Amino acid sequence: MGISDITEAIAGVAAELTGMRGAPARAPDSINAYPFAITYCRRGTWRANDATFKTGLLTFVCDIHLGRLPDLGRVLGAHEEYVNEFPNALLADLTLDSAVDTINDIRYELLPLYYAGVETFAYRFEIDIKYESAIT
Predict the structure, then answer these.
(1) For residue 8, which of 25, 37, 112, 126 is within the disulfide window of CB 3.0 to 4.6 Å?
(2) For the whole model, what pTM was predicted?
């Protein structure tokens, strides 16, 4: 398992959210339907356990774009359930089907974002995970 597997696992959880129209494991060039989720690894820290094994404390981001910014009133009310639904789905399987050792903290915020030149309103979830792997 690697970073791309973790990204796929988180995107897979997002894809199952109520009303989700897209949540690919690889970010597309544009978004054509909302809500739409984009997942990526934002930052991390690696520590060597010994000469053959390392532990990563990594932060993944899942931006759930609700809709274009001018439509704020309509899209916000329709998708407020993501604040609970997404963390609940992630925490139901703390290892993301063995892709990680554990999920630690999940933070979120509501903010305007740009994606492919389009201003959207989105929930940004930051998911802290612990991931151990061999040093190769």
Answers:
(1) 25
(2) 0.91
